[in-house]
Amino acid sequence: MTDDRETLPPDSKLTTTKQRWADEGKFLTGRAARPDTERLPPGQHLVRDWPVLDLGVKPSVTPESWRLDVGGAVEQPLSLDWAGLMALTQTRFLSDIHCVTTWSRYDNTWDGVATRDLLAACRPTEAARVVVLHSYDGYTTNLDLADFAAPDALLAHAWEGKPLAREHGGPVRLVVPHLYFWKSAKWLRGIEFLGADAPGFWEVRGYHNRGDPWREQRYSDDD
Ligand SMILES: Nc1nc2c(c(=O)[nH]1)N[C@H]1C(S)=C(S)[C@@H](COP(=O)(O)O)O[C@H]1N2
Ligand SMILES: [Mo]
Protein backbone atom coordinates (compact mmCIF):
# COMPACT_ATOMS: atom_id res chain seq x y z
CA MET A 1 0.00 0.00 0.00
CA THR A 2 2.98 2.30 -0.47
CA ASP A 3 2.73 2.80 -4.24
CA ASP A 4 -0.36 5.05 -4.36
CA ARG A 5 1.54 7.86 -6.02
CA GLU A 6 2.40 5.67 -9.02
CA THR A 7 -1.20 4.57 -9.53
CA LEU A 8 -2.70 8.07 -9.30
CA PRO A 9 -4.48 9.31 -12.41
CA PRO A 10 -3.08 12.47 -14.05
CA ASP A 11 -4.39 15.78 -12.65
CA SER A 12 -7.89 16.54 -13.91
CA LYS A 13 -9.21 20.07 -14.45
CA LEU A 14 -11.17 19.90 -11.16
CA THR A 15 -8.08 18.72 -9.29
CA THR A 16 -6.13 21.70 -10.60
CA THR A 17 -8.98 24.10 -9.77
CA LYS A 18 -9.43 22.77 -6.23
CA GLN A 19 -5.71 23.07 -5.60
CA ARG A 20 -5.91 26.72 -6.71
CA TRP A 21 -8.84 27.34 -4.31
CA ALA A 22 -6.65 26.15 -1.46
CA ASP A 23 -3.93 28.56 -2.54
CA GLU A 24 -6.41 31.46 -2.70
CA GLY A 25 -8.43 30.59 0.42
CA LYS A 26 -11.65 30.54 -1.65
CA PHE A 27 -15.00 30.18 0.22
CA LEU A 28 -13.63 31.20 3.62
CA THR A 29 -16.13 33.36 5.51
CA GLY A 30 -14.19 33.99 8.70
CA ARG A 31 -17.33 33.12 10.68
CA ALA A 32 -17.70 30.36 13.25
CA ALA A 33 -20.80 28.20 13.79
CA ARG A 34 -22.31 26.43 16.73
CA PRO A 35 -23.08 22.84 15.74
CA ASP A 36 -25.74 22.49 18.47
CA THR A 37 -27.91 25.32 17.18
CA GLU A 38 -27.02 25.58 13.48
CA ARG A 39 -27.23 22.54 11.27
CA LEU A 40 -25.49 24.10 8.26
CA PRO A 41 -21.78 24.82 8.86
CA PRO A 42 -20.42 28.27 7.91
CA GLY A 43 -19.94 28.93 4.21
CA GLN A 44 -22.05 25.90 3.15
CA HIS A 45 -25.27 25.77 1.10
CA LEU A 46 -27.83 23.02 0.99
CA VAL A 47 -28.29 20.81 -2.10
CA ARG A 48 -30.95 18.20 -2.80
CA ASP A 49 -29.06 16.25 -5.45
CA TRP A 50 -25.80 14.44 -4.70
CA PRO A 51 -22.78 15.84 -6.58
CA VAL A 52 -20.01 13.45 -7.68
CA LEU A 53 -16.40 14.40 -6.98
CA ASP A 54 -13.41 12.29 -7.93
CA LEU A 55 -9.98 12.44 -9.56
CA GLY A 56 -11.38 11.76 -13.02
CA VAL A 57 -11.59 7.99 -12.71
CA LYS A 58 -14.30 5.78 -11.22
CA PRO A 59 -12.69 2.39 -10.61
CA SER A 60 -14.75 -0.63 -11.53
CA VAL A 61 -14.83 -2.89 -8.48
CA THR A 62 -17.46 -5.58 -8.02
CA PRO A 63 -18.44 -7.05 -4.66
CA GLU A 64 -16.84 -10.30 -5.90
CA SER A 65 -13.48 -8.70 -6.68
CA TRP A 66 -13.48 -6.24 -3.73
CA ARG A 67 -10.93 -6.71 -0.94
CA LEU A 68 -10.11 -4.65 2.11
CA ASP A 69 -6.72 -5.00 3.79
CA VAL A 70 -6.49 -3.70 7.34
CA GLY A 71 -2.97 -3.53 8.73
CA GLY A 72 -0.14 -1.58 10.29
CA ALA A 73 -0.29 -0.98 14.03
CA VAL A 74 -2.98 -3.58 14.78
CA GLU A 75 -2.98 -6.77 16.80
CA GLN A 76 -5.14 -8.55 14.22
CA PRO A 77 -4.50 -7.67 10.56
CA LEU A 78 -7.51 -8.41 8.37
CA SER A 79 -8.05 -9.17 4.71
CA LEU A 80 -11.79 -8.92 4.18
CA ASP A 81 -13.72 -10.05 1.15
CA TRP A 82 -17.41 -9.27 0.66
CA ALA A 83 -18.59 -12.18 2.82
CA GLY A 84 -16.14 -11.15 5.53
CA LEU A 85 -17.50 -7.62 5.55
CA MET A 86 -21.09 -8.84 5.71
CA ALA A 87 -20.22 -11.16 8.59
CA LEU A 88 -19.36 -8.14 10.75
CA THR A 89 -22.13 -6.36 12.67
CA GLN A 90 -24.25 -4.31 10.24
CA THR A 91 -25.36 -0.84 11.27
CA ARG A 92 -27.64 1.87 9.84
CA PHE A 93 -26.71 5.54 10.39
CA LEU A 94 -28.44 8.76 9.31
CA SER A 95 -26.10 11.71 8.70
CA ASP A 96 -25.40 14.93 6.81
CA ILE A 97 -22.68 15.45 4.18
CA HIS A 98 -20.52 18.58 4.11
CA CYS A 99 -18.20 18.97 1.11
CA VAL A 100 -15.39 21.52 1.16
CA THR A 101 -16.58 22.82 -2.24
CA THR A 102 -19.50 24.31 -0.14
CA TRP A 103 -22.40 21.92 -0.73
CA SER A 104 -24.09 20.07 2.12
CA ARG A 105 -26.67 17.32 1.86
CA TYR A 106 -28.93 16.41 4.79
CA ASP A 107 -30.33 13.06 5.93
CA ASN A 108 -28.34 10.36 4.18
CA THR A 109 -29.14 6.81 5.27
CA TRP A 110 -26.08 4.56 5.26
CA ASP A 111 -25.76 0.83 5.87
CA GLY A 112 -22.47 -0.84 6.62
CA VAL A 113 -19.98 -1.61 9.36
CA ALA A 114 -19.40 0.98 12.09
CA THR A 115 -15.72 1.86 12.33
CA ARG A 116 -16.01 0.99 16.03
CA ASP A 117 -16.90 -2.58 15.11
CA LEU A 118 -13.99 -2.75 12.68
CA LEU A 119 -11.69 -1.44 15.42
CA ALA A 120 -12.96 -4.15 17.75
CA ALA A 121 -12.03 -6.73 15.10
CA CYS A 122 -8.52 -5.46 14.25
CA ARG A 123 -7.55 -4.04 17.67
CA PRO A 124 -5.13 -1.13 17.07
CA THR A 125 -2.02 -1.26 19.26
CA GLU A 126 -1.01 1.36 21.81
CA ALA A 127 1.22 2.91 19.13
CA ALA A 128 -1.63 3.65 16.67
CA ARG A 129 -2.42 7.37 16.34
CA VAL A 130 -3.44 7.90 12.72
CA VAL A 131 -5.48 6.01 10.14
CA VAL A 132 -4.68 6.25 6.43
CA LEU A 133 -7.37 5.20 3.95
CA HIS A 134 -6.23 3.74 0.61
CA SER A 135 -8.57 3.61 -2.38
CA TYR A 136 -8.73 1.74 -5.67
CA ASP A 137 -8.17 4.98 -7.63
CA GLY A 138 -4.90 5.70 -5.81
CA TYR A 139 -6.55 8.28 -3.51
CA THR A 140 -5.44 8.45 0.11
CA THR A 141 -6.61 10.46 3.10
CA ASN A 142 -5.52 10.56 6.76
CA LEU A 143 -7.56 10.77 9.95
CA ASP A 144 -6.73 10.87 13.63
CA LEU A 145 -7.70 7.56 15.19
CA ALA A 146 -10.26 9.40 17.34
CA ASP A 147 -11.96 10.89 14.26
CA PHE A 148 -12.00 7.52 12.50
CA ALA A 149 -13.56 6.02 15.65
CA ALA A 150 -16.40 8.60 15.79
CA PRO A 151 -19.68 6.96 16.88
CA ASP A 152 -21.40 7.73 13.54
CA ALA A 153 -18.52 6.78 11.21
CA LEU A 154 -18.87 3.66 9.08
CA LEU A 155 -17.70 1.62 6.13
CA ALA A 156 -20.78 2.08 3.96
CA HIS A 157 -21.98 -0.29 1.25
CA ALA A 158 -25.53 1.03 0.87
CA TRP A 159 -27.21 4.44 0.64
CA GLU A 160 -30.96 4.90 1.06
CA GLY A 161 -31.27 1.13 1.30
CA LYS A 162 -29.68 0.45 -2.11
CA PRO A 163 -26.17 -0.74 -2.98
CA LEU A 164 -23.79 2.22 -3.05
CA ALA A 165 -23.44 3.40 -6.66
CA ARG A 166 -20.04 3.12 -8.35
CA GLU A 167 -19.81 6.91 -8.84
CA HIS A 168 -20.24 7.42 -5.09
CA GLY A 169 -17.55 4.92 -4.16
CA GLY A 170 -19.28 1.56 -4.36
CA PRO A 171 -18.95 -1.17 -3.42
CA VAL A 172 -17.56 0.27 -0.16
CA ARG A 173 -16.61 3.76 1.01
CA LEU A 174 -15.84 5.38 4.32
CA VAL A 175 -18.32 7.90 5.77
CA VAL A 176 -17.08 10.25 8.51
CA PRO A 177 -19.94 12.75 8.84
CA HIS A 178 -18.32 15.22 11.25
CA LEU A 179 -15.49 16.10 8.84
CA TYR A 180 -15.47 17.51 5.28
CA PHE A 181 -16.36 14.80 2.80
CA TRP A 182 -12.90 14.49 1.24
CA LYS A 183 -11.99 12.50 4.39
CA SER A 184 -14.64 9.92 3.40
CA ALA A 185 -12.60 7.78 0.99
CA LYS A 186 -14.54 6.14 -1.84
CA TRP A 187 -13.68 2.72 -3.38
CA LEU A 188 -12.03 1.68 -0.14
CA ARG A 189 -9.13 -0.79 -0.59
CA GLY A 190 -7.02 -0.53 2.55
CA ILE A 191 -6.96 0.84 6.08
CA GLU A 192 -3.54 1.43 7.59
CA PHE A 193 -2.87 2.29 11.24
CA LEU A 194 0.23 4.38 11.89
CA GLY A 195 2.12 5.84 14.84
CA ALA A 196 2.91 9.09 12.98
CA ASP A 197 0.86 11.25 10.63
CA ALA A 198 0.92 10.77 6.85
CA PRO A 199 -1.08 13.44 4.97
CA GLY A 200 -3.05 12.15 1.97
CA PHE A 201 -3.96 13.34 -1.53
CA TRP A 202 -5.72 16.63 -0.67
CA GLU A 203 -3.83 17.19 2.57
CA VAL A 204 -0.57 17.59 0.61
CA ARG A 205 -2.34 19.83 -1.94
CA GLY A 206 -3.28 22.71 0.35
CA TYR A 207 -6.23 21.23 2.25
CA HIS A 208 -6.50 21.13 6.02
CA ASN A 209 -5.09 18.14 7.84
CA ARG A 210 -8.27 17.62 9.92
CA GLY A 211 -11.11 19.30 7.98
CA ASP A 212 -13.70 20.17 10.65
CA PRO A 213 -16.58 22.00 8.83
CA TRP A 214 -17.76 23.68 12.06
CA ARG A 215 -14.38 25.37 12.40
CA GLU A 216 -14.22 25.91 8.65
CA GLN A 217 -10.93 24.04 8.43
CA ARG A 218 -10.83 24.11 4.65
CA TYR A 219 -7.19 24.87 3.90
CA SER A 220 -3.82 24.11 5.41
CA ASP A 221 -3.00 27.39 7.10
CA ASP A 222 -6.39 28.49 8.48
CA ASP A 223 -6.28 26.67 11.82
N1 LIG B 1 -11.20 7.31 -3.58
C1 LIG B 1 -11.61 8.58 -3.56
N2 LIG B 1 -12.35 9.00 -2.52
C2 LIG B 1 -12.79 10.28 -2.49
C3 LIG B 1 -12.48 11.18 -3.51
C4 LIG B 1 -11.72 10.70 -4.60
O1 LIG B 1 -11.40 11.44 -5.57
N3 LIG B 1 -11.31 9.39 -4.59
N4 LIG B 1 -12.94 12.48 -3.42
C5 LIG B 1 -13.29 12.99 -2.10
C6 LIG B 1 -14.03 14.24 -2.17
S1 LIG B 1 -13.14 15.65 -2.47
C7 LIG B 1 -15.37 14.29 -1.90
S2 LIG B 1 -16.18 15.76 -1.76
C8 LIG B 1 -16.17 13.06 -1.77
C9 LIG B 1 -17.22 13.04 -2.86
O2 LIG B 1 -18.07 11.95 -2.70
P1 LIG B 1 -19.31 11.84 -3.68
O3 LIG B 1 -18.76 11.83 -5.08
O4 LIG B 1 -19.99 10.58 -3.33
O5 LIG B 1 -20.16 13.05 -3.44
O6 LIG B 1 -15.40 11.89 -1.88
C10 LIG B 1 -14.11 11.96 -1.33
N5 LIG B 1 -13.52 10.65 -1.40
MO1 LIG C 1 -14.61 17.40 -1.80
UniProtKB/TrEMBL annotation:
Any matching Pfam family: Oxidored_molyb
Domain spans labelled Oxidoreductase molybdopterin-binding: 59-202
Signal peptide: none
Domain of life the protein comes from: Bacteria
Region feature Disordered, mapped onto this chain: 1-20
Protein name per its UniProtKB record: Sulfite oxidase-like oxidoreductase
InterPro entries noted in UniProt: OxRdtase_Mopterin-bd_dom, OxRdtase_Mopterin-bd_sf
Protein source organism: Methylobrevis albus
